């Protein structure tokens, strides 16, 4: 539902402005993604952001941001947000200067955000409690989509396709792990443990590989 709701620019624009603390002139949807896709390969929303800066020209703006909204603190350091940029491993004081940033926002730590608007956004993502003008706009849009039978059906189809895609991807990775370990001569018990396939599935893969080798 996130991608669907935030494909609305009147919702996305203030959200990005507050999150990055910038003033946006306008948003443009890249042409290949002009129409929101409901298939499992499209999980988010991408915009080109045209920001205004003092005395600057658009041709000189090169900032690129990738925003991650995470429920849990995947880095485990207790911060509500993490900002990354490209630095030299040998000397972290040296930045690449490519103005490419990746920001991670841990919305379940919403109480630690100091900006009240950003805090309200994060609180909404964590609790679904809309207690600000911006989050009420999001909530109203969600309610509107849920009341629309056509959009609701498309969304349910998207969720099903996404689940199927994830399951297929997981199964493919498990099989690849098992095949590699079989080729290395690892015991079945170890392959079951690391591939998370059943013993029967591993034995079938071993039988198939043996048949292929004799042909």
- Unreliable stretches (pLDDT < 50, length at least 5) are 32-43
Q: Any idea what the radius of gyration is?
A: 23 Å
SSE-based structural type: alpha+beta
* Number of DSSP-assigned strands: 5
- Helix coverage percent: 40-55%
Characteristics of this structure?
47% helix, single chain, two-stranded antiparallel sheet, alpha+beta, three-stranded mixed beta sheet, 5 strands, 215 residues
What this model shows, in words?
The chain is of the alpha+beta class and 215 residues long. 47% of the residues lie in helices and 13% in strands. The strands form 2 sheets. Strands 3-5-4 form a 3-stranded mixed β-sheet, with no helix packed on it. Helix 5 runs antiparallel to helix 6 (188-195). The longest helix is centred in the last third of the chain and has 35 residues, at 149-183. The chain starts with a helix and ends with a helix.
């Amino acid at each position: 539902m996130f991608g669907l709701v935030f494909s609305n620019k009147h919702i996305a624009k203030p959200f990005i402005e507050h999150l990055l603390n910038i003033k946006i002139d306008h948003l443009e949807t890249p042409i290949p993604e002009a129409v929101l896709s409901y298939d499992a390969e499209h999980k988010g929303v991408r915009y080109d952001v045209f920001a205004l800066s003092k005395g600057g020209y658009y041709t000189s703006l090169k900032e690129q941001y990738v925003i991650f909204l995470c429920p849990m603190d995947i880095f485990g350091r207790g911060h509500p947000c993490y900002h990354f940029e490209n630095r030299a491993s040998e000397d972290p004081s040296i930045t690449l200067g490519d103005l490419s940033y990746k920001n991670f926002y841990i919305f379940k730590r919403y109480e630690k955000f100091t900006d009240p608007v950003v805090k309200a956004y994060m609180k909404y993502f964590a609790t679904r409690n809309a207690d600000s003008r911006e989050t009420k706009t999001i909530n109203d849009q969600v309610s509107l989509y849920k009341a629309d039978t056509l959009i609701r059906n498309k969304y349910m189809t998207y969720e099903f396709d996404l689940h199927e895609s994830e399951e297929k991807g997981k199964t493919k990775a498990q099989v690849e792990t098992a095949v590699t370990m079989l080729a290395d001569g690892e015991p079945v018990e170890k392959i079951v443990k690391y591939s998370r396939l059943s013993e029967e599935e591993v034995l079938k893969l071993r039988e198939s590989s043996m048949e292929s080798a004799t042909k």
